[in-house]
Amino acid sequence: MKKFFSVLLAVGMHVAAYSQQVKMLTHIEGGILSYASLSEKIGYSFKGAGTWPLNPTVSMGVGLGYEKYFLKEQDVTSLQGIPLFAQGKYILTPDRGKSLYSALDAGYSFNLDKTEDHEKIKGGILLAPQLGYLWKLSNQRDYFSIALGYKYQQYKKDISPMNGGGYGSFTDITYNLHRLSLMVGISF
């Protein structure tokens, strides 16, 4: 896990340094993932994205993150992964100091959980729309944000026929995770 965070920090620093040379924004955000009420087990998400403005209201970019999901009444209690995604963002009134915005992340998440020899958990597709509010800082480029969203994440578990020394059949289990997200972030 230390290696993962070291690589993530190095990539983030590279993106931040590169964004000083081009008109790219780096957006870092973190938050919670809930699938029932806030009293249930809450997962968490941290992600960073580099976005390039296509015009004052629309920007596109790519991002990377870390997420952990908790499952209720399943054979797996939690799943963690690294999402790699493309992001599109629309800012309603970019010329004002405060504005509503919408964003969409679409991509693939890679599983980080260790598996046994006869069981493999694979990542899957990711889709995450958000609606948020942003506050620009004094330089009118950087901003703080808060967003409420929905996150769909898929994981697949493949169990081989050799389970405990006996022969059986292949078993595939698909985890379709639906979560509400509350994220706070900063762009610079």
UniProtKB/TrEMBL annotation:
Domain of life, per lineage: Bacteria
UniProt name for this protein: Outer membrane protein with beta-barrel domain
